[in-house]
Design brief:
This protein is an alpha/beta fold. It is built from 20 helices and 17 strands. About 40% of the residues lie in helices and about 10% in strands. The protein has a 6-stranded mixed beta sheet, sandwiched between helices. The protein starts with a helix and ends in a 54-residue tail after the last helix. The relative contact order is 0.12. The chain binds beta-D-glucopyranose.
Length: about 600
């Protein structure tokens, strides 16, 4: 009897505790809403428009503008660095934050950065494989860990907001941002989006996490012929069925921001697309965070139309600030924009600032700088490198290479450059070509593991034909948005390997040397002949700062795990249409299907 009574009391207490916890959560959100409403009531129109403005940290008189124009956010991307060391970066942003806190209402700033595969704007940070590689690894737990580390290293350099993840579904491999996205599969993308948003945001009030941005809404990777910022001609059903699910998931995970896309959707600029931005994203999906514009969108995509369509914060950079602020002011005066729309935008921005706890905790912690590029982070990055590699061919089981092999020749400039191995958005916007601080590369990895003689032949002119095996590393040079589109006037990027790189393979294969080809690329390339010519062929994507991890798989310390996140094209002619030869055009047979990837079958427990 007594025993039952005791159980009853404990059960009751548990119930009360559980419901209190739920209530606390609800209360927290309710309290935030009350704070947002009270603060909004105090704000002048100038202060409201100011909150909706984002500028660059190095702009002339940035500090003055924070005070006089009530700026809501600061961006860092390509351009002058905020300082030399991480402490300098923090100091720069702390100074700007102090400036904001001195304004009449003391509303703190959001500091946003293009940290798209690690805090890649800071040399010395951990740089992970680009998302296409993470799509190949398809390991949500790993993606969450990576996002956590990215958040931490971003905070350590002064940021509370990242413009990541890109959750596009690319339909044409000619698109120059294909590697920023996880996969052509909606399902893989949605699963990894969930992990990424979780990892970045964690508990938002904690200042080791950051607000994430799902981008670019919507159709960025689905333009006709893969043109960045081009025209997307999908039907509403196709948009909903193919592209929307990752956004639904991101919103479910409470992503703080969504960035609008450069492309048009059936003739309407996505920045001015009210039906998709407001009705679908904010209405149907119930997104209550910030819709941020992309670069200089106010002057590029329709002035006040973009505000009316649902843009809440404007990247008013490089001369756009006064155009935006004055334009919106006028728009309100002449009835083009309603005060209710402006209030809604400001509420969304304030809501996120409260959720981030910035009013109580506005600065980055200086103690965090020791986290940048630390060993434990690089161990995770190296795991991602290994898991992202996809084995496409392994004739006569030439792989794994025996560590005791007498002579190995490593061929190709890509083998000896972490810059080339990292792709765009690495140190610089369009990437970098040399080795950068804190990184390793494939050649170093081979040198570490191989016990025999390793020689390096950067351009296949040294004729090491007595080698037992040639590891030939070829691929693309780094590129980012616009400049990375195949067909863009600024470049000579192509769907195939360059003649020079084909020659690297042929030089050694023609002499009968066994050839293992490692392809470094931001997209699948048409390499049908090159695969035929070589004994083993690996898609290693863009591994980032831990390139030496590639060797650990080549020599069999670990097995291959990666599976193709895109179907792999066979012929250049397959690209005649609007979309690439991927899963979604059944008339074209790929060389390898989505999900393809070999393993070392004969191995064994020794392999991890
Ligand atoms: C890109 C975005 C990026 C922004 C800020 C734009 O050009 O499309 O992805 O976040 O620049 O650098």
């Amino acid at each position: 009897m007594e025993n039952n009574y005791f159980k009853y009391v404990v059960g009751l207490l548990l119930l009360i505790m559980l419901s209190c916890k739920e209530k606390m959560k609800i209360n927290k959100e309710e309290i935030i809403e009350q704070k947002v409403d009270s603060l909004l009531k105090l704000m002048t129109l100038e202060e409201k428009i100011g909150q909706m403005s984002q500028i660059r940290h190095f702009e002339k008189s940035a500090k003055k503008q924070i005070s006089s124009k009530f700026i809501g956010s600061i961006i860092h991307t390509q351009g002058p660095l905020p300082g030399k060391t991480a402490k300098d970066w923090q100091k720069k942003f702390t100074d700007l934050q102090k400036q904001a806190l001195k304004t009449r209402l003391g509303i703190p700033l959001l500091f946003g950065v293009d940290a798209v595969h690690g805090q890649n704007t800071f040399e010395g940070a951990t740089i992970f494989p680009h998302n296409i590689g993470l799509g190949a690894a398809n390991n949500p737990h790993l993606v969450e860990e990576i996002a956590k580390i990215t958040a931490l290293e971003s905070q350590a350099t002064g940021f509370n907001w990242v413009f990541s993840p890109c959750i596009a579904i690319p339909l044409n491999e000619k698109w120059g941002r294909i590697y920023e996205a996880f996969s052509e599969s909606t399902q893989i993308t949605a699963n990894l989006t969930r992990a990424s948003v979780k990892g970045h945001q964690g508990d938002l009030t904690d200042n080791t996490t950051v607000m994430a941005t799902a981008k670019h809404f919507i159709g960025d990777g689905a333009t006709d012929y893969g043109v960045e910022g081009g025209e997307t001609t999908l039907t509403k059903d196709q948009v909903y069925n193919l592209l929307l699910e990752p956004y639904r998931v991101a919103v479910e995970e409470k992503v703080g921001a969504v960035m609008a896309s450069f492309n048009t959707m059936n003739g309407i600029s996505m920045h001015a697309h009210k039906a998709l931005l407001t009705d679908t994203l904010k209405g149907q999906l119930k997104f209550d965070g910030i819709v941020v514009s992309d670069w200089k969108a106010y002057s590029r995509f329709g002035g006040n139309d973009i505000i009316n369509a649902g843009i809440d914060m404007v990247m008013a950079v490089d001369g756009d600030l006064s155009k935006f602020q004055e334009g919106l002011h006028k728009g309100l005066e002449n009835g083009e924009v309603s005060l209710a729309r402006i209030d809604d935008a400001v509420k969304r921005i304030l809501r996120q600032k409260f959720r981030l706890n910035l009013f109580d905790n506005p600065f980055s912690k200086t103690s965090l700088t020791k986290e940048i590029g630390k060993e434990q982070h690089r161990i995770i990055a190296k795991q991602a490198v290994r898991e992202s590699m996809v084995l496409l061919k392994n004739e006569d089981k030439i792989l794994p290479i025996a560590k005791e092999t007498k002579k190995i020749v490593v061929v190709g400039e890509h083998a000896n450059s972490s810059g080339l191995q990292s792709g765009g958005w690495s140190i610089n916007w369009q990437g970098t070509k040399g080795n950068y601080k804190g990184s390793t590369n494939i050649l170093e990895g081979i040198n570490k593991i191989a016990k025999g003689n390793v020689v390096y032949d950067a351009d296949a002119t040294k004729n090491h034909f007595d080698a037992d095996v040639a590891i030939i590393v070829v691929g693309e040079i780094p590129y980012a948005e616009f400049f990375g589109d195949i067909g863009h006037e600024s470049n000579q990027l192509q769907l195939t390997l360059t003649e020079k790189h084909k020659k690297y393979i042929n030089t050694y294969a023609d002499k009968g040397v066994k050839t293992v080809v490692v392809l470094i690329s931001g997209r699948p390339l048409v390499v049908t002949d090159d695969i035929d010519k070589s004994d083993a062929f690996i898609a290693a994507w863009l591994p980032g700062s831990e390139g030496d991890g590639v060797a650990e798989v080549l020599f069999g310390d670990y097995n291959f795990k990666g599976k193709l996140p895109h179907s792999w094209p066979k012929y250049v002619e397959d690209y005649k249409g609007k979309y690439g030869p991927n899963f979604w055009d059944n008339s074209i047979e790929p060389l390898f299907k989505l999900g393809y990837g070999l393993q070392y079958l004969q191995l064994k427990s020794a392999l991890k």
